[in-house]
Structures are given as structure tokens and as C-alpha cells.
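Collaborator request, handled under Task 6.
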Amino acid sequence: MKAYCLVAIGGGIGTILRFLISQSIAHGTTWSPLPIMVVNISGCLVISFLNFLADTSGQIYLGPRSRTLLLVGICGGYTTFSTFSLVSFRAFVAGQFLDLWLNIVLSHILCLLAIWIGAIAAANFPRLLSTIADWLRK
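C-alpha cells returned to the collaborator:
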């Protein structure tokens, strides 16, 4: 149960940080992808730093609860792209190139497909609600 609380607290902190940073950058730029790109890049830097500094073979060992709070909670709430990138990097370092490219390619293709399906579903949703409402009134 402690791990869930740590993830929830860290996720809240990470989400607030993402919102604050992206909003502050958004006010000063005309290129809309920049805030999310800055969040993703900085999240990758932080999760990598924490992962390699604070694991059992590193100079500092924070322990499983601290790692849960920082890596899963805060970094996960800040950006899941950091976790995606860390998983890809681990596959690269381990020489698991099939896993690396499947993760990269499938994640991008399937996420774009999910966005497309979501857009289609959202476009048709009002009509579906109207049809259901008409049916219920009869």
C-alpha cells in the first residue's frame, strides 16, 4: 500500500511540475510542440540521472521506496516519455535491438493509431448520444 501512496504523491508532484513548466514555456513561444518537447527531454534527463546515480550499482543507493517515489511517481507524472526512453535505452545497452526497435516503432504507430481512433470516436459521439436520447424518448 505504501508503494501506491508514493506513486500517487509523486505523480501529483510530477503532474504539477509538467503543467507549470509547459505553461511557462507556452506563454513565450509561438511553436506549439516546444513545451511538450522541453518536458519530454528534461524528464528523460532526470529519470536517466536518477536511475543511474541511485541504483544498487551506482554511487548512491536510495532504496526501493525512494526510487518508486522519484522514478515511477514524479518522473511518471511529469512525463511517461522518460520511462519509454529509459526502456529503449536499456534494450539498446543490452544489445536487444529487436526489442528496441519494436518498442520505438510499435509505440509510435500504435499511439498514432489510437489517436486516430479516438478522433473518429469523438467525432461520432454526439451523434451516438443523440440517437440514444431519441431512442430513450420513444
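The cover message to the collaborator said: "Residues 97-138 form one domain. The longest helix spans residues 97-137. Please let us know whether this matches your experimental observations."
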